Amino acid sequence: MPEVVTESRNNPNSVDLLLNMGPQHPSTHGVFRMVLGIDGEKITSVQPHIGYLHRGSEKLCEGEQYHQIITLFDRLDYLANFNNELVYCQAVEKLMDLEVPERAEYVRVILCELNRIASHLLYVGTIGLDAGAMTPTMMAFRGRERIQALFEEISGARMMHNYFRIGGLKEDLPDNFNELISDLLPLLREDVEESDKILTFNEIFLSRLKDIGTISKSEAIEYGLTGPCLRGCGVDYDVRKAQPYSVYDRFEFEVPIGLDGDCWDRHWVRVQEMYESLSIVEQALEQMPDGPVTSSLGRRLIRPPAGEVYVRAENPRGELGVFLVSNGTDRPYRLKVRPPSFCNLSALERLLKDSWIADSVVILGSLDIVLGEVDR
Length: 376
Description:
Elements: E1 3-7, E2 15-21, E3 33-39, E4 42-49, H1 57-61, H2 70-74, H3 81-96, H4 102-130, H5 135-155, E5 164-165, E6 168-169, H6 177-199, H7 203-209, H8 217-223, H9 228-231, H10 239-242, H11 263-287, E7 307-315, E8 318-326, E9 334-338, H12 340-345, H13 348-352, H14 357-367, H15 371-375
Antiparallel strand pairs: 1-2, 2-3, 3-4, 5-6, 7-8, 8-9
Helix pairs in contact: 3-4, 4-5, 4-11, 4-14, 5-6, 6-11, 11-14
């Protein structure tokens, strides 16, 4: 039962209640808890509680050799495994001034963009459920399943791939990759288009998300929002464009931006990003050269020179950064992650206050958080 706390600030004849939402609530998208102060159906205060999934990943990295850490990054944002592996590998490569073979860079981009689509498809399915729509979930998960099947063919695992390596990849693509990707892309485009058509401009969906959870450009920047949450406010910032890494500067693609910074804009940006990711994959397949996928580093023990480095990349949820400090041994001295979900979650109280309880579900869902990355 909700707990009576104080007299309402809005109406002296009523009282505020404390309402627990989570951590076992299906609409909190993981083990996340919000304590909502409510006056009737209106939210008057918000207390987010995190840490239920804490595993000490950053501290664990200090006890592992550099090549053993990649699998820990798979488990941070477990919906964007390849994107996480990439930014860590790039941090060590930058510290070592290590050149990655061109073919490996193209394969990395292809897999990261497919992972972005898979992540956004999961978002489309869950935001549909949050708004009361079941059918888009079936369409979105069908497309996501196709991508996961391809990932399993390439890395041997549906998730937690441990496929990227410092200096390249674990191994080259399978012999039947061209056939697999040729079959996948047309079907994937159909899945994206179908889920887009049934949901994005649906009248009920618009009424549930439009002008809900609005935040301005300046506020979004002050809170440290990145990714679709920032671009939904109209801020044209994407790490792939602002500070191109890997071979992203060789592709033509647009950065979708919203107008009003509401839940619907954040949704629309993610849908448009899936179309752009498909375009990037198609361009990368056309340009991808032959050649090795591992550097001259081989299987030697990795000992970067003493120093520190910060590397960032565009995760499906925003800017994912890795700050790495080396003391010259085979294990990092310190490793710190800048997680986009954690930073985006900082604006939750601002977004929820003075909104309705029914809107809290779609507002939280529009942030698209992953608790493994938030808690670390």
